[in-house]
## 1
Amino acid sequence: MSDVFSSPMLKVEQPRRGPFAKSRYKVLDGDGTVLAIANETASKNRAESLKQVFPGKSDSDARAVLLTTPDGEPLLVVDKQLGRELTEVRKPEGEVVGTFVTERVGRRYSVRDGANTAIGMVSVDLPHNNFEVISAGGGKVAHVRKKWAGLATHLLTTADKYSVEIFDPVPEPLRTMAAMTAIVMDLNLHESKEIT
């Protein structure tokens, strides 16, 4: 992976948006410099958007976001497959960097490299606000925390903010996967909250 996400502290922010808008994220370094912007790659028709506004909406829909530099250079694609089983992180030309494979929905995810070899795992706390990335050898690689923004913001908007602390040195592709954990977990666990 390039040096774009080399900072040991990252912030991932999802701006507020309306129910018909696409998923968007900003990735910043610890100083607040924008490193990457992510936008959903597929557009939804009105019926698909409406079904996400009403209670009972499942978070099992397929979604993909393309991460680019602020200048528009493609970096990565985070592709959450239909269902809750698999999320791929790919290079723009299609090569798989790694995958997040669900072991226990909302609680534990296996992190695998492009050859499907287990390189780590993500452990999730009960409220889905803290995510520990652990290497296959058992060492702590990163801590991702979803920040509490207050009850009204939590219930009525899509505005989510995450902090990502990476405990370097972490070998590739595990480091890239750790950096993408906030977006992956948001797509898998928090994106069903689309009422604004």
## 2
Amino acid sequence: MATLKALVVDDASFVRDLVKRTVRQRFPVIETTDAQNGRRAQSLMSRTVFDLILCDWEMPEMSGLELLQWMRQQPQYEKVPFIMITSRGDKDHVVEAVKGGVSEYLGKPFSPEGLSNKIIKVMGRRLKDAMDRSGKSMGGPADAFKESATLLTQKREPAAPASPAPGKPRTGPAASGRPAMSVASVRFADSTLRSVVKDITLTEVRVIAKRDQQFPGILDQAVVDIEVAEDQVARLNGYVHQLQAVEKRQDTDFVSVTIRFVDEDPQKLEDLSRFIARFRIGG
């Protein structure tokens, strides 16, 4: 029986479902409620006191940072753990979150183990005592969603990332008849994929990557970093929808990866629209 309450806040329903599934399977003593943005979360928090907040940063109406700053001004939430789960991993944003009173910071994409470890860290003895009273182990069962993706793709053990830490995408000479190719950094929980954008819409992107890299599994979380303007990078959350050999032979050198976007933030859609316009003109 659940004895603790957690609020999951993210504008992408796919991400909210991943977080809730992990919490439910690893920590059955925690009951989860979700909200699609900070404004809705604020409303829920005003009516119910939660023991843990798991929140995205970039959301419409009210950001995660704004929710955190408001929360720390409320007497009942001064010491409640707040985990920021976001694709914004640069030092400036981490410092800003720390100043706002964040308890822990978890980058997207995240693994079930990574999220579980953060929850254990911020909840401490209170969570352990609740689990002990329920007769459950802190380790919890394996995440079925992750297992399914692994079985579908015969995914290898995590290897070192095939590229440097995610940063600003670059442009370079064409490789397939396009005057200039758009290079995307596609981040997964255990690796980063260097790739070239082959096609992109408001709902998905198809990239081509060399086979000698670490590839994800079907349905794995992804963050696609693309340059939408000079010195401006959009970080688009999504999941792996399709993996396909570029050539019709087993020893193909290139693999096509389709990422379905899950963000519902109007600003991100506007940024993506600008990139698509530039991409089409370049083609």
## 3
Amino acid sequence: MNRPFRLGLTGSIGMGKSTTARLFAEAGVPVWDADAAVHALYAQGGAAVAPVAAAFPGVAQAGRVDRARLKTLISEDKQALSRLESIVHPLVREARRAFLAAHEMAEIVLLDIPLLYETGAEKDCDAVLVVTAAPDVQRARLLDRGQMSAAELDLILARQMPDAEKRARADYLIETLSLDQTRAAVRDLLQRIGQNIGAHHA
């Protein structure tokens, strides 16, 4: 295999995905973050600003997409989300291709994609890691942050593929119980993938 092993990372909101991605980065693995890519596309000079502004007049302010306005618009218009996705998803895929081209000498790369299964991105991965936690742990983490109400959380969860389905489709699972346990699980997984890559080359 003349390219890096592509490990997809996903998991429902509050499952510890961002922390897990950070632990891979700390272990020296190049990480591509789909959310960060979208933020860059919406920022000043971002490739999504002009097409999104054309499709949704009034959402661009000072040369960038106003995410709060966009969120309001999507909640009011049932068709808006699919129109937005048809603009943004191809640009995100392009950003991912550029990342992969820039890291073609790496042994393993991590693709951190919240809606990995929902967008069919698993087809571009060699394996998928799903991070998970018990439902009560998930709810407690999110509601304790004070950034959303229980009703808002239920709305987000209703839009995401259920955790059980993600777990069933995963190649690897990490239950994020504690930071130390998750760090150990990441190290263990990198070792296993490294051995598999070695076996293929042997």
